[in-house]
Amino acid sequence: MIIRHRSNPIIKPGDVKPSIEGYKVIGSFNPGATNFGDEIVLLVRVAEGCEPRKGYIRTPIYRFDDNGKGYPDIMEFDVSDPEVIPKDTRTVVYKGREYLTSLSHIRIARSKDGINFKVDDAPFIYPENETERYGVEDARITFIDGKYYITYTAISEDSWATALAVTEDFRSIERKGLIFYPENKDVAIFPERVNGMYVALHRPNNTRFGMPAIWYSESPDLLHWGNHKCIARTRDNKWESQRIGAGAPPIKTPEGWLVIYHAKGDNSVYSLFCMLLALDEPYRVIRRASVPLMTPTEPYETAGFFPNVIFSNGIAERDDKIYVYYGASDETTNVAITDIESLLESL
Question: pTM (2 decimals)?
Answer without folding.
Answer: 0.97
